[in-house]
Amino acid sequence: MADAPKAPRSFQEIILRLQNYWAAQGCAVLQPYDMEVGAGTFHPATTLRSLGSKPWAAAYVQPSRRPTDGRYGENPNRLQHYYQYQVIIKPSPPNLQDLYLGSLAAIGIDASLHDIRFVEDDWESPTLGAWGLGWEIWCDGMEVSQFTYFQQVGGHDCKPVSGELTYGLERLAMYVLGVDHVMDMPFNDPSSPIPLTYGDIFRQTEEEYSRHNFDGADTAQLLRHFEDAEAECQRLLDFPPLDPKSGKTIIMAHPAYDQTIKASHLFNLLDARGVISVTERQAYIGRVRALAKKCADAFRLTPAGQDAEVAQ
Amino acid sequence: MSDLLIELFSEEIPARMQSRARDDLKSLITNGLVDAGLTYGSAGAFSTPRRLVLSIEGLSPESKPVREERKGPSASAPPAAIEGFLRSTGLTLDQLERRADKKGETLYAVIEKPGRAASVIIAEVLETTIRNFPWPKSMRWGAGSLRWVRPLHSILCLLSDESGADVVPLNIDGIAASNTTAGHRFLSRARFPVTGFDDYAVKLKRAHVVLDSAEREAAIWQGAQNLAFAAGWEVVEDKGLLSEVAGLVEWPVPLMGRIADTFLALPPEVLQTSMKEHQKFFSVRNPKTGRIEGFITVANTETADHGETILKGNQKVLSARLSDAKFFWENDLRVAKAGMGEWLDGLKSVTFHNKLGSQADRIARIAALAAEIATMVGADPALAKQAAEVAKADLRSAMVGEFPELQGLMGMYYARAADLPEAVALAARDHYSPLGPTDTVPSDPVSVAVALADKIDTLTGFWAIDEKPTGSKDPFALRRAALGVIRLVLGNGLRASQLRCLELGNIQHLLFKLNAQEHGDQLGGLLILALLDRANSDFKLMLEPSKYKVPSNLDESRKNENYLDFRKKIWGGYVDEGDGVLAFFHDRLKVFLKDQGIRHDVIDACLAMPGNDDLTLLVKRAEALAAFLKTEDGPNLLQGFKRANTILTQAETKDGVEYSYGADPKFAESDEERALFAALDTAEAAITPAMRAEDFAAAMAAMAQLRAPIDAFFTAVQVNSDNPIIRRNRLNLLHRIRAICSGVADLTKLDG
Predict the structure, then answer these.
(1) Contact criterion met (CB < 8 Å) for B317 and A133
(2) DSSP-assigned letter for residue B168
(3) How far is A113 from chain B (nearest CA, A)?
(4) Across the interface, do A149 and B141 touch by the CB < 8 Å criterion?
(5) What is the pLDDT of residues B136-191, one digit of tens each?
(6) What is the mean pLDDT of the segment spanning A252-273?
(7) Mind telling me how many Å the CA of B298 is from chain A's nearest CA?
(8) Which key words tag this protein in UniProt (chain A) (predicted)?
(9) Mapping DSSP to helix (H, G, I), strand (E, B) and coil, where does residue B78 land?
(10) Any idea what DSSP says for residue A213?
(11) CB A92 to CB B142 under 8 A?
(12) Three-class SS of residue B69?
């Protein structure tokens, strides 16, 4: 890169550069989904919008929670709450690899100095009934992103195929900024009047949530909520499509999918609390997957999820 | 003659799939071309992470014309028959030839296929190959429906001869064949045209791509060794890793780094596994300390700073990984030094199989079994029990959680840390062995006892719950477990009764089931009684910890249905019935011995003998018999034996009596007959002690001496004499042949 941009100085600058870069590539820059999710893929902008034939291009930051990864803010690389940057484009453009490499250049990773590799890593989400083929991308031996061509979501074949990019923002930023402990990473510009590190913002919450996830959460209540979400999802999908009030066909695919997201997060919390045995685990995952499939089925009947021909 | 160059250029192909893909591309294309009537001289396939390449030399420019003639029905045949022929040939009636013969006129279809240009055939074959390529996993991309391992970007397909090179016209889902390709992703981005394979390979190298994976492997290995040598170190060889790394790079650049001192106390296997699994690093050993102190990573690019940034990045990732490993190791050591109680407790909540209980239940069974088996293999029962109790503790360790392939090995380190006897530590490491047909067989008696107990518990357990392997399905790897037992027994020359080991396994499972039941006490008492009633059995070690008491009313108990059921299960039961686990062992043994060149019928002849549950004895006998059958005397003696046996059996059937006793030389009429008497006496005198000493070779050598006298006897003597006394005497003599030979092996089971 002849005019390589200056190296970024903070976590937020990396995020802003990614936002600008993908906006310039024509993606709709969305905001995070307002629910607790385990990964950016759960955002309906990815799961649901990867279904059906309508073209789609979106990019967004998604705060993600993995309760079992809580380490009270002490582990340099592990967090129970972290950020993913997600890009989803349907159909996957032929130059998606180049576009991706362009995004690395935008955040200061110069391909002429680093060793960037596409290493086989097939992606599968048992809870979403989804899978795809692709790679994890290594920069100097460090996994910085996941690159997937979706083949199936919610049990439906993806036609056309969406290309999905997921950046683990903290890890990527730590590498770009040369920081060894996530809590030491500058969140805003270090020369700001009030410089804030990642730790200033998240150390305390990591402690609080670690305690909550491992010891505090009320498991009996979580179990109840899981059942509730499961039942509610089904109930919403059981409504007849015709809405008597508006006279329109309105399938509540998104509200039902919200319940799937809830069930999935509740399962993760129960897992962190250690109350799910190995054998039960599979059963719970199967229950969430069944919900995801039903939501996918429902979404495929909505205007946004139909195939172009059918919609006409 | 022409040369053909094909390059299928795609996004990164998984390293593990490349070798197979090269072979598939070569065979699919060359077979397709040959089937279509072309010939070729030679073909070579190549791969890099982004391309699959085939070069064919000496290809014929077109296929030979083919003339095919098919005889049809008579011209006067019913219309339906003629129509059928037309349909099958795809011709019309006026295209058929009529030829006069004796019956009148017969219809003939003459189909002439003109020769076709190579380029047309290539286009067809390549398209078929691409559309049907046997990738282990393939995908769609964009809005298309074509499947490839990853998105396919371009196809180079060039047919060249002395006059020049032409692109083979071809378009697959919008990808048109061309004569251009691209170089290295970062070092040489421009596309460029090529004129043939040599030009292609040269230009690729200029564009920072080494086409041949063997050349890349050699370059990596050489470069790695040079780097290590310069530092006075040596690279740890790893062929699998080398081939994988060669599939990850087009322009390999090895870089060497040092592992930080703080990690050097980790076990070398942990360093090696972590570096290999997570980062595809080679390990580098310092011969002075014997430790792994360095690593080699292979970059896919050259940089202005000679890889300094890349190495620094890799070093950082390694430190993060090894920090995790160190954290696991130190935590694990703490648990180990405290006696591993935390792990053993934890195993209670890990299900092994829902019908076979938890890992802790399984360990308790294996420990009881190992103590029993110890006495058969010359190990200290208490030590074997102790070893079995901790051998699987490491399954709960953090390190094995992270690197499952280190199970057992970590168990050894942790057993040492817990100050357990070395035999216990070795058993923890070795009790999974042997895992495959070439894996080393443990020889330390304690390890052997635990390894046998582990496998027998698995076999008898899954047998008891009726989860036997069927056809190609063997989800619990029972065939591997049986082979493991066979190799442990044979490899150590063990003289353990297989039947008894299996019975012991069954008893453990019966006890386990009882323990899990309510009102198990009465049943437990009946089981103990059944065990004690078993002749020849000594189950003291196993029963001592049992909470069950022998019932007071013996006579009544012995009529109890449950008692009878136990009795059946313990006394053989599902162990040695037709589809029992012993028969399963014998099947595995046949497969195992067949690989070593011993025929099925030879094994059957030995299996029919008493003591067939002693695998060592069985194999010794089979080996001797197989060797005997390879000598000149062997097959001849077998003929003589079979002849004697046939005559005798026929006479016995006819007369309704068994000729088994009383052959007397005084009724012998000829020298040959007398000689056979003498030879049988000599053979018997030699065979009996040889068999007692289990010296099968000597027994068979003695048996071989019978060949000439038997042959001579049959040549000179008519068995079915008119004199009934002489006839009976001769039949009794034949019986001696049968009896003596059958004591060595059941020769009737042999082919030929």
Answers:
(1) no
(2) P
(3) 5
(4) yes
(5) 999 999 999 999 999 999 999 999 999 999 999 999 999 999 999 999 999 998 99
(6) 94
(7) 10
(8) Aminoacyl-tRNA synthetase, ATP-binding, Cytoplasm, Ligase, Nucleotide-binding, Organic radical, Protein biosynthesis
(9) coil
(10) I
(11) yes
(12) strand
Least confident span in B396-410, B486-500, B575-589: B575-589
ipTM of the complex, rounded to two decimals: 0.93
| pLDDT exceeds cutoff 90 at B586 | no
Write the pLDDT tens digit of every residue in B19-63.
999 999 999 999 999 999 999 999 999 999 999 999 999 999 999
Q: Nearest-CA neighbor of B744 among B697, B681, B676, B682?
A: B697
In single-letter form, the type of residue at position B85 comes to: F
Count of other CB atoms within 10 angstroms of residue B475: 8
The reply to whether residue A277 touches residue B141, judged by beta carbons under 8 angstroms, is: no
- Residue to test with chain B: of A74, A109, A140, most B Cβ within 10 A: A140
> Is the minimum CB–CB distance between B732 and chain A shorter than 8 Å?
no
* Residue pLDDT, tens place only, B283-311: 999 999 999 999 999 999 999 999 999 99
Q: B566 to each of B96, B500, B507, B513, how far by Cα in Å?
A: 79, 15, 9, 12
Nearest to B732 by CA among B660, B651, B652: B660
Measured at the CA of B644, the angle between CA B639 and CA B648, to 5 degrees, comes to 145
pLDDT for res B664: 86
Contact A253, A299 (CB under 8 A): yes
Contacts of B590 (CB under 8 A, 6+ apart): B600, B603
- Cα–Cα distance, B352 to B735 (Å, whole number): 56
Question: What residue of B is the nearest CA neighbor of A132?
Answer: B139
Which chain A positions have a beta carbon within 8 Å of B140's beta carbon? 149, 151, 158-159, 161
Cα gap B511→B517, rounded to integer Å: 10
Q: B186 vs A278: CB contact, 8 Å cut-off?
A: no
Beta carbons of B351 and A140 less than 8 Å apart: no
Coarse DSSP helix, strand, coil percentages of chain B, rounded to the nearest 5 percent: 55, 15, 30
Q: How many CB atoms lie within 10 A of CB A301?
A: 14
- According to the model, what pLDDT value does residue A312 have? 40
Q: Do A139 and B12 touch (CB under 8 A)?
A: no
Measure in Å the smallest separation between the Cα of A242 and chain B Cα atoms: 32
pLDDT bracket for residue B517 (50, 70, 90)? low
Q: Which residue in this structure is represented by tokens 């004697």?
A: B644
B90 Rama class: left (phi>0) / alpha (psi -120 to 50) / beta? left
- Return d(Cα B148, Cα B131) in angstroms, integer: 8
How far apart are the C-alpha atoms of B242 and B24, rounded to whole Å? Answer: 22
Q: Is B310 on the interface with A (CB under 8 A)?
A: yes
Domains and CATH numbers, chain A: 11-211 (3.30.930.10), 218-311 (1.20.58.180)
Between vectors from CA A185 to CA A184 and to CA A186, what angle results, nearest 5°? 115
Residues B169 and B155 sit within 8 Å (Cβ to Cβ): no
Of B514, B498, B508, B509, nearest in space to B575 by CA: B498
> Considering just the CA atoms, what is the radius of gyration of chain A in Å?
20
Concatenating the DSSP letter of every residue in B397-462 gives: SHHHHH-GGGTTHHHHHHHHHTT--HHHHHHHHHTT---STTSPPP-SHHHHHHHHHHHHHHHHHH
C-alpha dihedral, B308 to B312 to B318 to B323, nearest 10°: 160
Tell me the DSSP string of B50-65: TEEEEEEEEE-SBPPP
Distance CA A269, CA A77 (A): 20
Confidence of residue A311 (pLDDT cuts 50, 70, 90): very low
Structure confidence at residue B582 (pLDDT): 77
Question: In angstroms, rounded to a whole number, what is the distance separating the alpha carbons of residues A35 and A62?
Answer: 10
- For A176, the closest chain B residue by CA position comes to B313
